[in-house]
Specification:
Blueprint lengths: L1 H9 L8 H10 L2 H23 L31 H36 L1 H16 L2 H20 L1 H15 L3 H14 L3 H8 L4 H9 L4 H24 L11 H8 L8 H27 L8
Length: 306
C-alpha cells in the first residue's frame, strides 16, 4: 500500500489545461459560429490569395468584352468597360475588409480607453459618459458626410487619392462607432473594481496604472472581443453605404460598395452585377455576426462546459 502511494506521488503531474482550449471547445459546439467562421475565413483567404491565382487586372479596360455575362473566361461577367467582375470583386474585398478591420481596431482602442477610465475613475465618469451620450445622439450618416466633405480633398492631396480616402474612411468610421464598446466596458469595470482580488491588490498599494493593465483589462477581454467581431460588420456596412453614395474610393479603386454603386444604372439589364457584391457583403456580415454570438457564449464562464 505504501509503495502504491509513493509511486503515485512520484508520477509527473499533468500540466493544467489552458482556458483558451475550453473557449475553443465551447466555440466549436456552436454550429452557427463554426459555419460563420468557415465562411469568413473562406472570404478572407479568397480575397488575399485569389489575385495570385486569377491574373486578370481589375482595372484593365477591354471595350470589346464589355457587358458580357458569366463565362469560363469571366466567371462573373464583365462591366460596362469590359473589366473582369471577378477580379474587381477580389480587389474590392481586400479594401472592404481592410477598412472594416482597421476601423474596428480604432473604435475598439478608443472605446476601451474611454470605458476603462470612466468605470475606474469616478471623477471622470460623468464627463466621459456625457461625451459618449453626445456622440450617440449625433446622426451618424450626416456626420460622416460632413467629415468626408471637409477633409477629403486635403487628405487626398497629402497621401494620394487611395491612401487619403483610406485614412479618412477608417478615421471617420472609427471615431463614430466607439460608443457602444465604451458603455459595455464601463459597466464591466464598475462591477469588477469591487471584486475581492481588486480590493486586495489595492490594499497592498498597487498603483492605478498597474491595476488597470494587470487586473482590470484582462478581465474585460470578453466583451471587448465580442465588440470587435460586431464592429467589423458595422464598419463594412458603413463603408459600403458611403461607397454606394459615391463618397468612398475613386471609381478605378473598387470596393464592394463601389461595385454596387456602379451597377445601379444597369440593374434591369444585368441584375447579376448587383447580386455579386451584395451577396459578398451579406455573407461577410452574417458570418461575423454568427462568430460574435459563438464567441460571446464561449467566453461566458456560466455557459462554458455545458
Amino acid at each position: 500500500m505504501t509503495e502504491v502511494t509513493a509511486t503515485s506521488a512520484d508520477a509527473p503531474k499533468k500540466a493544467p489545461r489552458n482556458q483558451w482550449w475550453d473557449v475553443w471547445d465551447q466555440f466549436k459546439s456552436h454550429k452557427g459560429a463554426m459555419l460563420g467562421f468557415v465562411v469568413f475565413m473562406t472570404i478572407v483567404l479568397g480575397v488575399l490569395f485569389g489575385p495570385m491565382l486569377w491574373h486578370f487586372d481589375p482595372t484593365f479596360i477591354d471595350i470589346r468584352a464589355r457587358n458580357q455575362g458569366p463565362s469560363w473566361a469571366h466567371p462573373m461577367g464583365t462591366d460596362q468597360l469590359g473589366r473582369d467582375t471577378f477580379a474587381r470583386m477580389l480587389s474590392g474585398g481586400r479594401v472592404s475588409l481592410a477598412v472594416g478591420m482597421t476601423a474596428m481596431a480604432l473604435s475598439l482602442v478608443v472605446g476601451t480607453f474611454v470605458g476603462v477610465l470612466a468605470g475606474y475613475f469616478k471623477r471622470l465618469d460623468g464627463l466621459l459618459m456625457r461625451t459618449t451620450d453626445l456622440f450617440l445622439a449625433l446622426p451618424l450618416l450626416p456626420l460622416l458626410l460632413v467629415i468626408i466633405m471637409l477633409f477629403r480633398d486635403k487628405l487626398s492631396a497629402t497621401f494620394g487619392p487611395e491612401g487619403g480616402i483610406f485614412i479618412l474612411m477608417v478615421s471617420a468610421i472609427g471615431i463614430t462607432s466607439w460608443m457602444q464598446t465604451a458603455r459595455i466596458v464601463r459597466g464591466d469595470v464598475l462591477a469588477l473594481k469591487e471584486r475581492e482580488f481588486v480590493l486586495a491588490a489595492r490594499s497592498i498599494g498597487t498603483p492605478n496604472r498597474r491595476m488597470i493593465t494587470r487586473h482590470v483589462l484582462p478581465n474585460v477581454l470578453s466583451p471587448i472581443l465580442v465588440s470587435a467581431t460586431l464592429g467589423i460588420a458595422n464598419a463594412i456596412i458603413t463603408e459600403s453605404a458611403l461607397s454606394f453614395l459615391g463618397l468612398g474610393f475613386p471609381p478605378d479603386f473598387p470596393t464592394w460598395g463601389r461595385l454596387l454603386f456602379d451597377s445601379v444604372d444597369y440593374l434591369q439589364q444585368y441584375p447579376e452585377r448587383v447580386i455579386w457584391p451584395g451577396l459578398a457583403i451579406s455573407l461577410t456580415v452574417l458570418s461575423v455576426n454568427y462568430m460574435g454570438d459563438g464567441l460571446r457564449d464561449a467566453l461566458d464562464p456560466r455557459i462554458r462546459g455545458r
